[in-house]
Amino acid sequence: ADTYGFDGFNLDFESLKAEAGPHYVQFIRELSVSCRQKGLVLSVDNYVPSPYSAFYNRREQGIVADYVIVMGYDEHYVGSEEPGSVASLPWVEKGVVDTLAEVPAERTILAIPFYTRLWKTTGGALTSEAIGMDQAQNVIKENKAETIWDGSVGQNTASYEKDGSSYEIWVEDA
Question: DSSP of 59-99, one letter per residue?
């Protein structure tokens, strides 16, 4: 931090195994001491709370880190078995509410995606690619897909057929 003039550190350790949880939290504790001594900000990225990530111990992070960041994205991801939103409104809201049950609001940050996924189904096989919001709008326009507001997810959806494949996308707009 001294060498490069950093203002702080953001930790983004994903896919940890449960047995690593106590060691990870201890690492955050020890790093927080050094950061405070140097006047550096320490933030920690976290999945939305769920049973499989409870060992990340957000409550303790909220005590020792300056900020606990909720990664409000990847509700549906490249390995998902069905197409869907990267960050539907109900899913994100639940992630924030559940985080606030463990972490003080003044230490909580919501990270939002500036991307979506274009889902493609061909012969029953599902694939997807992450694309930025501008590219998503271009895909919709180029394929003359009609966007439809889906209040249950708080997003527009669109679908279209092309070259024997079906495409689906969830997008936000202004």
Answer: HHHHHHSSEEEEE---SS-TT-SS---SS-HHHHHHHHHHH
Strand, coil or helix: what is 119?
strand
pLDDT, average across residues 13-29 = 97
- Assessment of whether the complete model's pTM goes beyond 0.90: yes
Give bridge partners of residue 65 from the DSSP assignment: none
CA 26/CA 139 separation, integer angstroms: 46
DSSP 15: S
Please name the residues in contact with 90: beta carbons below 8 A apart, sequence gap of 6 or more: 152, 153, 154
Q: What is the pLDDT of residues 81-128, one digit of tens each?
A: 999 999 999 999 999 999 999 999 999 999 999 999 999 999 999 999
Measured torsion, CA atoms of residues 83, 89, 91, 96, in degrees rounded to the nearest 10: 150
Inter-CA distances, 5 with 30, 34, 38, 41, 161, Å: 21, 15, 11, 12, 51
Residue among 71, 68, 69 at smallest CA distance from 86: 71
Q: Round the average pLDDT of the chain to a whole number and report it.
A: 97
The pLDDT value given to residue 61: 98
Pairing relationship of beta strands 67-71 and 108-111 according to DSSP bridges: parallel
